[in-house]
Known about the structure:
The chain has 26 helices and 24 strands. It is α+β, with helices and mostly antiparallel strands. The protein folds into four domains: 8-70 and 352-458 and 707-738, 3-Layer(aba) Sandwich (D-Maltodextrin-Binding Protein, domain 2); 75-161 and 278-338, Dipeptide-binding Protein, domain 1 (Alpha-Beta Complex), CATH 3.90.76.10; 182-269, no CATH class; 460-705, Roll (Dipeptide-binding Protein, domain 3). It is globular, with a radius of gyration of 26 Å. Residues 1-33 have low confidence and may be disordered.
Amino acid sequence: MKEKWKRFISVVLAAISVSATALPMIACGEKPNNPKTPPLTFGIDAPSGNFNPFFLESVSDSKIVGQTQIRMLTADASGKPICGENQPTVALSYTETMKKGEETTTNANEATSTEYEFVLKNGIKFSDGTPLTIKDVLFNLYVYLDPMYAGSATIASTRIQGLNAYRWQDPLASDDQDINEGEEYFYTQADARILNVLNYLSNKTGDPENEIKADIAFIKKLFFEESESGADLDSQIQDVLTSEETLGTLREELAREIRWAYYDDFKEENDGLLVKTISGITTSTKVVDDETHDVLKIAVNGVDPKDVWNFAFPVAPMHYYAGETYAAKANGVDHFGVEYSDKEFFQDVLQDPAKNALPVGAGAYQASNLDGASTGIDGDDFYNGSYVYFTKNNYFNTVGSDLRNARIKNLWYKVVASDQILDALKSNEIHVGFPIAKLENISAVDEYKDLERVTYTTNGYGYVGINPKAVPDIEVRRAIMKAMDTASIVKNYYSPELAETLHRSMSMESWAYPKVGDKNVGRHEKVKFSRDAEEICTLVEAAGYSRVDSNSVYSKDGKPLKLVFTIAGESKDHPAYDMFTETAEWLNENCGFDITVATDIHALSKLETGDLQVWAESWSSSIDPDLYQVYHKDSSATSIKNWGYDTIFADSTGQFTYEKDIINQLSQKIEAGRETINRNERTRIYAQALDLIMELCVELPAYQKKDMVVYNKKLINSSTIRTRNASSTSGVFDRIWEVDYR
């Protein structure tokens, strides 16, 4: 089953875990016990092809990039952060110190700040032989914390001391202010300019002002082919300015342009930056075992149990991603290889297509071509649409004295559809695969003597999403959810021993999953399953829909209630496919809907832009139950586009007043959950937050399943992988460099 995007920390964990990787065929004539030449091949879902570690979204992309990167910290089998000589981490050690004023305290309730100290290892080299230094660490931090950063990482949501002053370029800015408060100016300006364009196109009197001309050109470039022109295009632009489906996107992109122009002028007027550094991020040195090490310190206000995971980011090489010009300016004091809030740097340099297509880092493997060459290659050599090629990084042993270079020279990923994984394993096209853990697949694996399986509960869940941009009426979203029998997925596709019906938007593996007594919470009343046609039709009619008779399709403002339920990928072998089909048929026959169920190979890229209506997907959850990235109103993750937040907050008609209120309450709960380390208190807060998510009716949690890893035991030495006590945070192939053939 395909997975889409997930919380950033989950992406980060996927970068550590290779338990979802894939292996290739042994070349003709090779002996399977020769560790030097035959590539180890993993099966993988088709990646989107964006392999830039700063802007990862899809699970497949993150797994691929993860082979090339190391992080500040990793996780142990219990999900706790760890580092050290035996770990693929940049940090040799780290400590957390709570403070009350200037004094150290162990009482989280009285702590006014927390200091994170990371002692960096010496001698680490990236795969091209360039040393990894404190400058690389600072470069990564300042990328994530820049106002122009638009990836899914949530480091900017931490309350780092001095971050507001830096992002707003205001030395007097208070740490107590909402970090996104300064963003309101840009959105207010965007709203005003959108209104100006709309007024001009409506009246068409005289020549437009230069700013209006520029904004019309910007809208054309964003939504239409540049060659299009004429009065009809003007009408289409008016539709963009008034449509719920496009207005939010335009507002976001225009605010981004205004932000860039504002800070560009600001830097010119002030001859540079007024605030060149973030005061809460400092560096020093420390002697450990007679060696001097660089030290990174990050001071944050208050306490936040999620912060340590935000600071566990992968360290990508500055010289590669910033390029020579910007890297040469980096001095680690007041310039960090990042051009502050600069459009050219963030769009053209950092996300140069060549860099997006070819990742570089200090991980156990490095990008290569089919022949295993790692120099003089480009993205087309690395990923050709069917295979992704790696060769071992000969500098990986510099990451720690207890680490060695990969035993297997070449690693491949082969793109395999979910319903073809077992066949690919049996035919030796791949050596490791992740078929869906259902009874028929387990039986098929057990019948094949060369295959071995390992199963464990995934720290994630399957869900159904409904985008308010496409389904703006909350009553209709409720009606669709109430018609879906999520319990049928466990009953008909999986089995009770391999999956469980889920009722809240959180993995049941989390300690924070809400319970009633000693049992997991049941389905929320707002979306409780019902096949009562009268109830469903009443909800639809409450949203303003009507129909001629009981056999016709509901419509509103001349638009029929026509929707597409989408399954990602080409295969119908998906846990939610039968449920979608059954729901669609029932709603079409009994409740005046016109629903089509479709598979879509481009669904993942459409999710990145928020362009699906109703879809089934799955999350891979983070270790910490923090909800910020996926649900907070200020998150930059693509999930926000799918929940329709941009459309909801761009609304000026009152259509989404209820939703705005719910999202604001939800965001406050998420913030409150970050302000205490008391698990009981956080559990209480998250239970309330999860109820608010259900009331929003944008996500219907469906099931939590087990994962299954299948490998060729005739080829792979079982003693070199984790076959016992494997889990979502401690995968079978996590320590990929130790994996060997028999």
